[in-house]
TrEMBL record:
Positions of the Response regulatory domain: 4-120
SUPFAM superfamilies associated with the record: C-terminal effector domain of the bipartite response regulators (SSF46894), CheY-like (SSF52172)
SMART domains, sorted: HTH_LUXR, REC
This protein's UniProt keywords: DNA-binding
First and last residue of the signal peptide: none
Protein name: Response regulator transcription factor
CDD domains: LuxR_C_like (cd06170)
UniProt-listed Pfam families: GerE, Response_reg
């Protein structure tokens, strides 16, 4: 089954050429294009893609807002952001907006395809060296551990967290256990409380 992709950017001709390139790769199918911020959500609603591929510098500077809109309203659609330079601050903003993948524009096609496939499978697909960690004493929480604790603090079940973050239930439990151990919590809710008290969520 192909990974269905909507590609969003500013220029129709560029998007069409890009779509043709991706369609030539095994397992990928571009099902729609969006050339404005206003057309992104309708395109996702109409085509129901597995992944939205979005240019960070496009949409009149509203790309991150578009990513957040899609992740809020279409949880099953992963977002990959193409950026000028994949610095830690850029990756932080992208992940905060809900993107699961970040690819620099100077990346080669195989890297983009790998990222699209990873995000389609529900994986955070970013260079690990660019993921910021947050510290409590001598412990540090990964971005994913923070995500799990944030949702736990909101009362989400393990199943709901898994669905929201596109993770397996076992992965959520492993992340939760790691966070509990690092924070010295009694259970996942206590760990979330500790994280909140330290300003981490």
């Amino acid at each position: 089954m192909s990974v269905r992709i909507v590609v969003a950017g500013d220029h129709q001709l560029v998007l069409e050429a890009f779509a043709e390139t991706l369609n030539s790769a095994d397992g990928l199918e571009v099902v729609g294009l969006a050339t404005s911020y206003e057309s992104v959500l309708p395109a996702v609603e109409r085509h129901r893609p597995t992944v939205l591929l979005l240019g960070e510098s496009t949409m009149g500077g509203k790309a991150l807002r578009a990513a957040a809109d899609v992740r809020t309203q279409h949880l099953r659609c992963g977002v990959v952001l193409m950026v000028g330079a994949a610095t830690q601050s850029v990756v932080d903003r992208a992940v905060a907006a809900g993107a699961l993948g970040v690819v620099p524009k100077n990346a080669r096609l195989p890297q983009l395809i790998t990222t699209l496939m990873g995000v389609a499978g529900g994986c955070l697909t970013v260079d690990p060296s660019l993921l910021r960690t947050v510290a409590v004493g001598d412990a540090s929480l990964s971005v994913r551990e923070v995500d799990v604790l944030r949702l736990t603090a909101g009362g989400a079940t393990v199943k709901e967290i898994a669905g929201e973050l596109f993770l397996a239930g076992g992965t959520v439990r492993n992340l939760t256990s790691a966070a509990i151990k690092k924070l010295g919590g009694r259970n996942r809710f206590d760990a979330a409380r500790i994280a909140i008290e330290h300003g981490l969520l």
